[in-house]
Amino acid sequence: MQAEPLAVRMHGLFRVFGWADPLLVLRLPSVLAAAVATGVLALLGCRLAGPRAGLLAGVVFAVLPPVQRYAQEGRSYAVVCMLVVWASYLLVRAVESRTGGAWAAYGAVVLSACLLHEFAVLVLAAHAVAVPRTARRAWAGAASVAGVGVAPLAVLSMRQSEQVAWIGGTGAGALMEFAGVGMLGAACAAVLPWRRRAGRVGLVALALPLLLLPGLLLLLVSLVKPLYVDRYVLYGQAGTALLVGAALDRLVRVRGPVRAGVVLAAGAAVLALLPVTLYLRAPQSRVDDVTAVAAAVRTAGEGADGILYAPSRRRVWSLVDPDSVRGLRDLALDRGPADSGTLYGTEVVPSVIRSRLLAARRVVVLRDPAGQPVDATAQEAVKRRVLAGYFEECGTRTVRGARVSVYARPGRC
Hints:
By secondary structure, the chain is of the alpha/beta class. The protein has helices at residues 4-16, 22-49, 51-63, 65-70, 77-97, 100-116, 123-130, 136-158, 172-190, 203-222, 237-252, 257-280, 290-300, 316-319, 337-340, 350-358, 378-390; strands at 306-310, 329-330, 333-335, 346-347, 362-367, 392-399, 402-408.
């Protein structure tokens, strides 16, 4: 669920820097956003707990694996995270200054984050807990403006809910990861003072809800409609970094064995993260390998009449290398992504898909890895039904994140 404003900005960047390496242009906004988020988070930690706590929070944030991963991907999550961190800083400043301009700035930045990704609105739950009683009315006004501003986009997104139909139920791994990070944050909060100065935002009161509430709310919503993906609430890692940074700052003040143990534990954690850091920068860390997919399609397409994407969102695999599908008719396509203004293009009605498939003798089929949930749309159902009833699978090549299969009429493999 990535909002349209970022796509518009990326198109503008590609027009301006069309001469540059496209991967550099694609990833640069995320890299810069992660760098800015790290700096602003350090300032926030400094304001709430002192210079050393702020510096440590910034360092922790920069080395967290999820932050490193999405700092190098050409998607909105790092930018949203930067805006949420900035909004949290502006919240602290607005509570202290009590000026209308400060609250307006806070509301504008929150709204900007929500326009890039609707689930950024969940940060308001964390901010509602953090804001002191004396500032709740002013905060409610700014938060309401942000909520009203993002409402039209949320309504529009609901019409495109099929784009997140791939999200399955929350697995045990995701739950254990969320619980583990939550316990780390709670453990850090236990060594920090909970009392805050009157009329001020406290570090624990801000960081612990920021870490827990957005993810928890998304998990609860997923009981009704599966929507939980950890990157949708990446900004919760800012709460983790604030808590760990402040806890480290407090513990290194203690002399004797405790201080030595903390230093050793911190060093061990950095060493333990080093293999993860290197892995995140390797091709093997990616969900799929579009280069390998293109090569497999080019080989499988020899003698084929057409290509079928099942599900349709896998059409993006061929967009990076159009030559790999040259000469293959897209049997389900109605209008391509550019013509339809969509991410994956639009497809014809099921009856047309059926007739086109039945007119083909040999088809290349791009599918998700085995075991992934299948889409329940009418178009996807007819694809599976016709392939199972009128074709036989001649062979399948499995590459990272994809299966490239050749289907033919019986006796034509």
